[in-house]
Amino acid sequence: MTDSAAKVEPVSAADYETAMEFLACGRRGAGEEEPAASAATPAHLWWARRGRKPVAAAAVVENPGKTGTLICCRASAPPVEAQALVRVVRAVSIEALYSGMSLVQCMLRPHENANVEVVRDAGFTLLAELVFLRRPLCRSDASAEAQRDGLTWRDRRRYGDDELGAVIAATYEHSMDCPGLAGLRDVSDVIAGHKATGQFRPESWWIVELDGKPAGCMLVNDIPISLTSEVVYLGVTPGFRRRGLARRMLRLAAADAAARGMAWLSLAVDDRNAVAKALYLSEGFRRTDSRLAFLMARSAVDAPSKT
Q: Confidence band (pLDDT; 50, 70, 90) for 147?
């Protein structure tokens, strides 16, 4: 039997619970926990069925900053049909993009070959392999206030979004970290997304000035349940690179987090960014995980089909 017999459509309110149960079961693999993301309420939910039997399902959860996160069945999990899943993933993602999202993203483990093929066939492009790093914090980190010397640090209570947006935009120039994201969203949406990552801490969002000019920014939020502070974004403007500024910013982040009793400092980096990875490793960060980040942008898709 071929995929052509499977009907792809949005899930009705009456079938919502059934579709969500199928989506959760289709994502559960041997020896793996059901993903927490399935507990979120999706803004968009589609499936494919043969008669009344589901054979594929996917959802997009809306996030702040006009982005969506794709959740879909594991392509290799019975009774999921991979070709039907391709059609469902594409349909739900395009619907989400035309509802006002700028991009839909999907994070997969490198070994999830079947799902990598599905999202590629559905029209997603690989942004980067993101490497997740963290380092333990200790009492001595809290005494690193000397990293402030020679720099002017202004936290979020001393500047507005327009100023922060201008600094972030400047740091994107010739960036080696996920350059494919440039221009896909307004900077205001980027800031909204950063605020929603973990617990927003305005006092730990810094614009850094050197010689009276904005030299970069560092945005740090908390994940209280794991006693982790996360460097959500760190960027240096082109004229101030290769001067050790990023290292000083990291050390201040560690000092600030340690002084507040946090146990870990974490961040993510594009695996291709060798310079940044070398810096993080030299500062005591160690790799904990990695994900392939795929995305579909509104600018890259046609209007949704009426069929």
A: low
Residues 199 and 81 in one domain: no
CA distance 45 to 217: 37
Range of the domain at 178: 132-290
**What's the pLDDT band for 302 if we cut at 50, 70, 90?**
low
Tell me phi and psi for residue 279, to 5 degrees: -60, -50
Name the DSSP letter for residue 13.
G
Helix, strand or coil, per DSSP, at residue 301: coil
Q: Per DSSP, what are the bridge partners of residue 209? A: 152, 214
For residue 29, give the CATH number of its domain.
Answer: 3.40.630.30
In sequence order, the 6+-apart residues with CB closer than 8 A to the CB of 128 are 177, 178, 180, 270, 271, 272, 292, 293
- What are the tens digits of pLDDT across the range 183-208? 889 999 999 999 999 999 999 999 99
